[in-house]
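pls design
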């Protein structure tokens, strides 16, 4: 047991040879991984190999350990509301040589926390987004500097913070486009059964090739494409409603 000065006392140890190792220390210090050989002779005198003695005590050195917590807020970049159950993975090796593989999820108010990260640089990845949101395709960089400050970067740019000094990380919801299929033979005549194809590659590199059909007249001939990422797409009618000609135009659709 150690006292307030950090002195360790092992009582009633018999004559013999022992191993001494540090098994735990506070977060502010690096664990000493050395194993020391302790010899106690018949007179009760102690010798510890590789340790110097100061008066009646041996001195075991611990190196300072720089560490910090990373906290950020996950929010909807359209409504500004908090996003719950976004999942993240943080990985990397600290400057002290310790490997990290940590997981966390945003809570009911959108907060995510990775605690006690050592000095070093790490990768942060969104492994999955909640239903209706786009999972971020590229990782962030987390850097814990020698001041004990954790900084979150998106590429080479530091993420923005709110007024409380907490990083704010956006979740983008999936987008949709909606339009109605109507007749040129008169006003307010909506057509059922027209098929449309939407094709292209999103800004995030996702290939899109969707086909949807216009609804019934009481639904105003509605056509809806959902679960779209931002990007530029081509829209074309591929099947006309009964007793109508097909629209042979190709339309450009920009989703932002």
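designed seq:
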């Amino acid at each position: 047991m150690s006292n307030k000065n950090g002195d360790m006392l092992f009582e009633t140890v018999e004559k013999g040879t022992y191993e001494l190792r540090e098994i735990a220390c506070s977060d502010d210090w690096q664990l000493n991984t050395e194993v020391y050989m302790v010899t106690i002779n018949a007179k009760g005198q102690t010798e510890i190999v590789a340790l110097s003695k100061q008066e009646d005590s041996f001195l075991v050195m611990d190196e300072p350990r720089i560490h910090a917590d990373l906290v950020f807020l996950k929010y909807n970049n359209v409504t500004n509301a908090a996003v719950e159950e976004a999942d993240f993975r943080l990985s990397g090796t600290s400057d002290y040589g310790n490997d990290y593989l940590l997981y966390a999820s945003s809570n009911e108010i959108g907060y995510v926390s990775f605690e006690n990260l050592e000095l070093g640089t790490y990768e942060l990845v969104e492994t999955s987004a909640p239903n209706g949101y786009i999972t971020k395709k590229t990782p962030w960089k987390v850097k814990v500097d020698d001041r004990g400050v954790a900084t979150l970067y998106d590429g080479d740019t530091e993420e923005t913070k709110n007024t409380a000094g907490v990083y704010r990380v956006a979740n983008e919801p999936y987008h949709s486009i909606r339009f109605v299929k109507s007749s040129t033979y008169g006003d307010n005549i909506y057509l059922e059964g027209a098929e449309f194809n939407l094709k292209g590659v999103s800004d995030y590199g996702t290939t899109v090739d969707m086909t949807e059909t216009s609804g019934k007249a009481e639904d105003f001939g509605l056509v809806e494409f959902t679960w779209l990422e931002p990007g530029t797409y081509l829209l074309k009618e591929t099947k006309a409603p009964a007793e109508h000609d097909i629209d042979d135009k190709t339309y450009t659709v920009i989703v932002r």
